[in-house]
Amino acid sequence: MIKKLLVNMKEQIDLLYFFGKDKMISILTQKPYVLSSEETIDKIINDKCSVSRYGDGEFHLLIQSKDLKFQKRSDELSRRLKEILVSNDDDLIVCIPKVFSKSDLSMRTNESKKFWKDHVANYRLLWYKHLDRNKTYYNSTFTRNYIAIEDKTNLKNYFDNVKKIWENRDLLIIEGKFSRLGLGNNLFDNANSIQRILAPSENAFEKYDLILQKAKKHDKEKLVLIALGPTATILSYDLHISGYQTIDIGHLDVEFEWFLKKTNVRTKIENKYVIEANNRVQDDKPFFDTEYEKQIIDQII
């Protein structure tokens, strides 16, 4: 813990020299402009835009401070995450957490407030260093709007609105092998059709070129939903550049499962990989669903 504090202190001193005193004061008082989860969803629905998202995990890989449980850091991963964070491409929104002030955290549980307060206290200056201060960002936690929200009484309407994103659309879901988005719930019941490409549940970025190659074989009229951790941030951007509408959908299915269960804690979900509940599904665990198997059109080992 002391070592971590000393490292963060050194980084902040380095930034002070990098920016200068006056610039540092400006940075400390000017938080990034991040729109709400509701505004983010409306933007996606109305403009049919693509989405690349950053959470604390993507940020740790960007600054190469640590590996994640399911993704090792690398120079190339860091380089691409830095590039996309400040990109300004038409019809693509870049999302970051809306957590940089007390008011941003007002709707969150005490546990979530503490997590983000600690994170911002340690990494605020590094976030600000890598962000484009003139850019409008959207809220990456629009896919995580249940377990960390204090008042859960009106979230059915929230999820109903999210589901409008893919209403009557043909979906291509690119996901970790054991993510199984929408399986056992009605998250995608309003979609026209679903096809799936399965990728590694861990360290997917090591297979990035192959995943991108296989994704590009598909019709650009399909809406592409991606759940592959930090790899999804980059894949969504690259597919968007190639003419697809792509959404880094993250943990939305897991949050929806917890909403359906009416749970207040992160719990395991049968037959699904839920890293936050230490639930790693294995190949040797018996599982078969006829409709799900029909949807799988490719696998990357």
TrEMBL record:
<protein>
    <submittedName>
        <fullName>SP_1767 family glycosyltransferase</fullName>
    </submittedName>
</protein>
<feature type="domain" description="Glycosyltransferase GT-D fold">
    <location>
        <begin position="51"/>
        <end position="276"/>
    </location>
</feature>
<dbReference type="Pfam" id="PF08759">
    <property type="entry name" value="GT-D"/>
</dbReference>
<dbReference type="InterPro" id="IPR014869">
    <property type="entry name" value="GT-D"/>
</dbReference>
